[in-house]
């Protein structure tokens, strides 16, 4: 019984302490202090990121192999945290609005708890911990989705999310139960040697995959995505589409390579099918969308498909490509959501593509940022998205999936089409009544600036990638 | 005879559970469905008992029957007249549902059938509370203090969330 | 570099900065050309000069490596001339001037980068960099069905680059995934033949789309028709050359066996594009469409010549790239200027422009003559080199296609003269047109610069030809079995 | 006689898919929740059975135990949201929950 | 000899000056500048000729072939390269003289003719350009250089024909001329390609062994080159552009479409003559037949044309055909043994250039006077334009082959060569010669004799039938008549030049001697033609004429419409190429290819609509998809892998 081991989980503990601080602050603080709540949270998170990034240079295995941390995982956690910070920064305006102001504290608490859940998803080396991590990462998220209590859409999105989530976790649990039944243990390291690819293993693998596929929103497990994204508060949508998805992808990669290493043929086949389905179907849907958040939902599904191209590789190489892709995806997607968030209050009934008509004339900077972000998402050089996409393709190609790469590449053309539709709306389409010039608040501005920097420099400066590569395992 | 008691108990229990489950998903009154669910949950507790997992069975009854079902009842009462479930709407979707779940069942049964589980370890002594306690609170392998703690965070977060959503301004 | 230079400037100064920048680039590339020739004359025979390489993405063997040989020097020169003149051609670009030039500069950045890279990745990156600004340039500042055209152009080219990326990955992994450097891959020459068979067509089509290869050319007429003047110039003048250059530098150079085996398919396609483009041009009524189809035909000739895989033909191909680049830029510049005045490009609606705007009309006649391969202009030397080179492949198939391709010069004459006759000659009938003015000074400057370049290349082809020849020889020796 | 483990498994499978069936066909949010409870319950049975019949350590046991807890948490959140839905729309019928769609 | 380069440089220079800054010069300065530079040119050309022929023959009895300049212009890999240089040998010197002379005359003449025209400077610039290219063509050191200038000649011809660019007919004519010749040039180019590939050289002097090895393809190559030549020289059926080309200013017609450019084809064949004789005799015979047919065809058509320039144009075609025939009937390089035609052809080229130039310039003067091309507006002009009348008559006599005018001698040599080849060919060509005499005198009488339109109009003006006072025809100014006189003088005496001394098929001196029977018969034929013409047209249209017209109305109409060759070509180009090929291709491009690309987009959109119901908003159907997907994956993995 060595409870000191808790203290060795640096990122988790530090995040947990912030969690507690915020909890207490929320309970105690009044009036004046509440106004600086947002700033305090951001600072705390920054400090936490620092802690997370430093000092965990060595591998740690704790609790009899249940918990594992190494620099790469720390990096992933830091990435997720940074992403969350960006989201929180963007949330400022929304949180200060009258309908949300009083539940500001809850927002942070729920968000941080999901983040903790993701940390455990990444670090778990036991299915129980993994499962609890996943639940911790999704249940509070359901609350966040339904956060705008008095908006129909938010409630509807919330119920759709929670029910789908429950359904999928039931399915996943069922799969895990069979894994347990056939392996006798749920420790990753022990299971890896036992799994051989017999029918029950395949059955369990698919069910498990479905559970994570739900979180990553791969086709055909994606159908909740659009509705929830559209209905949820924009900040939450951003969080869902980026952080939650990223964590799930990381987890999937880890589980597949650590647990199902022997079944690589099977899971590669799964990914193969799902990737094609995801990219293609999501693209088809995205073409027809007018609501921007809904559109971004499909875009994110298709992006998830591209991420899978890196996962399918299953080596350190693939991991690097995947992490890098997600990193780039985080900044680009958050940039888009940042813009959406900034203009949202001017649009009744959700932001539509048409609302962007003439956007460039009225808000050149935001439109410019948005364009860059969309280009990055579409994989246009010299923005970071190009690099990440290239590496992803490379890793899938390396694994020998040429046809898959080819199909994905053809799909990039479709995806370019719909991204360009927005660009077109902003630059080309005329509008008598465009969105009025917006002055973003400081927090949003910081966040967007970071996104912009990321979009522009992540690709051109190769050291990020190289360092990730060094960390990969 | 002893041999057969367990099997009889099991068969009765399982038939009851299946019947209750079917009733729970078909009954048009939600309150009744909840009651049927309660039966299933009790039945499950019975199964746990039959595996000599008494603590588990007890938890099942306490948490599920005592907690969750009460919640259900609570919400049903709250909602009142909205609580009628119209089962038959779209035939197509209904059939799709039937088809999907039946084929799922078929596949699962097939998988269970083809797999050979080495199932001979049933320990009539059950699990001692001491072992259980150690397992939950231990830090070594096959001990679960970490998950226990994380679960507590989960419950806390869910509580916060649920209250947030459910409470009025 | 240029981007950073003027990002911060005010609207009024944009022109100044742009002119300064493009002049600087032009000067640089002229200097580069002279220096390059001097070095060659001094007996330096390395395949590439000014090579440099910075490791970029080490784990993936991606380097930012640059270097030039005769071909790229020539192409750089071409690009800078056109960028330079294009700046003048877009003197009065009205809405969002700054943005226009920003994208314009990004586009040229991509082009320059492409020509100097010797690394597959960077090359591909610059290639795509050059493509995307087209969308906005056409979409925002274009005319006619600009949105449709812009979208079509972008999507088709991106589709092409999807093929291309496949090809590049195939080459990289086929050669053992140890280097992305083109020359190193070429030297290793270890790509298995069956892999080459898969990836040669992919790469070739990938670049071919940009080079307006027959069934993939349809972006070109619409795109050109809708694009603003300078963009048409740059696009037809330089960007389409990326296709030919890439086909040669990557597809053929790195996948020689497959290139030899599969060339016939593409020869047929290119022959079709040569004749087909020319024939289509005959019955068009929109000036830009005519020129766009003419570009299809001429660019087809470039690919055609490359596929002949003889040194002469390939030299001719590069010459044709230069020549077509300059000519077509001239054409588009003139068309843009005419359109800017008459607001129509329908040849039936214009008449007797020679009387109204003599300068532009004379320029147009000269461009037309250059285009139909008049000796003394660049078109002639390029075409002749190509035909002589193509004819020297000794088998019936090549002979026949060469002769078929030759017929394009007659067809070219037909459509050029048709246009000249229709719009320039005759009596001006449209009353409104009588009021129109002739070219302003910056327009004149543009036209004159281009005419001088075209004629210079046509009258003194020797030095360019020699310049190119060394580069071509190097590549050809790798291709020929 | 010890009841074979497979019997339990079959039972749990049947329960699970009855839950699935319910989830597919019911028209009321609470009913859906009930169906989900059935599914989760079936999974719990699985874990317990495997642990009881096959393996020494208490992983399955603990899993079941925690699973019950998680199910409770999920239900709590779901019910909270259902209440919220009801508050917003005055109904908890699925067919009314289709404002968000293509 | 080194001066020869200036012959090229001067016109080019004057073209550049006039072309670039011409606008700022006054008409006079521009005209004089152009004329002066050409005058210098002419002087140099003559001096070159004098020094060249004066230097005498080298030891082997030949005039040396000199190449004072030859630079590589464009290397083509291997041994091939396009060179630019100056080649001096008898025929090129002869051509230099011819071109500069006629060109100078035209330059001087144009000072008067084009006076006051808009674009006067442009006109002179184009003339200079043309002269430059034509000179470049004749001094070409290799076939490719020839091709280069060949094209330039084509373009300058295009520009000059289209000089009146506001006239639709001129535009059409220039376009037609260019495209038809360009079409022929295509074959020329292919011929060059074949030639160049098999001999690995483009030059005219290639050693025997290489030629022998390439002998299999030489007939083909040379035949193709001839097609190119036929295009420029307006051989049937590529002649259609020449009559239309008369839309250009008349001096231009004189220079380009009578004297110089159109003989480029003849010059080409003459240039390649040793090869033709040595390796492609069949091709040579083919040339003869084509030439003979063309000669007859053009002569017949010329008999019924009403536009005087058209008559001259067809006459030109016919005469060039004579030259072609002369070359074609050669069977060896020895002028004594069947190689006479070469010399005859060159001789005729020389004399024809002079008298046809004269005819055109005369016609120009007439047109200048009456402002019309049609014969109806002419008649009885001899009173008003005496100088023109006399010079025109001289030219007519020359072309008809009446001694002692130059045409007689050269034509006589041609006929002799024809008779040497075969009697039938000789007879045939003699008849054509008679026709020539007939139509020329028909023209002559129609213009200068008969009723004067002016007088008729004056009468009706005086009697008040028409209001306007008619325009009185007047003699041309001095700068127009002077060239007429000069050329007439040359025409009178050129026949006595011992042409064979300078030029013959094998390079050795050949003494021209008239073969009596041929000479007499040809004179008789010519006189017969003249007499018939006199009877028919001396004083207007006689009854006989009308009777003849009546009796073969259909034939005459057909001949007037040039036997519908133009219509045929129009049918082929307009209907078949434009409507049946180009249009469908454009349609195909728009609909099928473009359509298929758009189709991809449409299909994508349709698919998008198709999958749309998936996103029904119903959470249960979502879950059905979820589970079905999972099960499908399980099944796939279990059974398909």
Structural notes for this entry:
The complex is a heteropentamer of chains A (473), B (169), C (481), D (102) and E (641). Chain A has one domain. Chain A is 77% helix and 1% strand. Chain A is built from 23 helices and two strands. The longest helix of chain A is centred in the middle third of the chain and has 32 residues. Chain A is globular. Chain A starts with a helix and ends with a helix. Chain C has one domain. Chain C has 19 helices and two strands. With 102 residues, chain D is mainly alpha-helical. Chain D has one domain: Orthogonal Bundle (Helix Hairpins). In chain D, helix 1 runs antiparallel to helix 2 and helix 2 packs antiparallel against helix 3. Chain D is elongated. Chains in contact: A-B, A-C, A-D, A-E, B-D, B-E, C-E, D-E. The interface between D and E is medium-sized, with 14 and 10 residues.
DSSP helical segment count of chain A: 23
Question: Briefly, what CATH class of the largest domain in chain B?
Answer: Mainly Alpha
What percentage of amino acids of chain B are in beta strands?
Answer: under 5%
Q: What value does the average pLDDT of chain A take?
A: 88
Helix/strand-derived category of chain B reads: mainly alpha
Rg of chain A over CA atoms, rounded to whole Å, is 21 Å
CATH overall fold name of the largest domain in chain B: Four Helix Bundle (Hemerythrin (Met), subunit A)
Shape label of chain A: globular
Strands, helices and their partners?
The complex is a heteropentamer of chains A (473), B (169), C (481), D (102) and E (641).
Chain A: H1 5-8, H2 10-28, H3 32-35, H4 37-53, E1 60-62, E2 67-69, H5 71-90, H6 92-96, H7 98-101, H8 104-123, H9 127-145, H10 152-183, H11 188-194, H12 199-216, H13 223-231, H14 234-258, H15 264-287, H16 292-311, H17 316-344, H18 359-362, H19 364-378, H20 384-398, H21 402-427, H22 442-460, H23 463-471
Antiparallel strand pairs in A: 1-2
Chain D: H1 5-25, H2 29-54, H3 59-89
Helix pairs in contact in D: 1-2, 2-3
Chain E: H1 4-21, H2 27-54, E1 66-75, E2 81-88, H3 90-113, H4 120-138, H5 143-161, H6 168-199, H7 208-213, H8 218-232, H9 241-244, H10 250-259, H11 264-271, H12 273-279, H13 281-304, H14 308-328, H15 340-370, H16 386-400, H17 406-421, H18 423-448, H19 453-462, H20 478-493, H21 499-502, H22 516-537, H23 543-551, H24 553-560, H25 565-611, H26 619-639
Antiparallel strand pairs in E: 1-2
Helix pairs in contact in E: 1-2, 1-4, 2-3, 2-4, 3-4, 3-10, 3-15, 3-20, 4-5, 5-6, 6-8, 8-11, 8-13, 10-15, 13-14, 13-18, 13-24, 14-15, 14-17, 14-18, 15-16, 15-17, 15-20, 16-17, 16-18, 16-20, 17-18, 17-22, 18-22
Q: What key phrases describe this protein's structure?
A:
heteropentamer; C: 481 residues; mainly alpha; two-stranded antiparallel sheet; 19 helices; 3% strand; globular; disordered N terminus; E: 641 residues; 2 strands
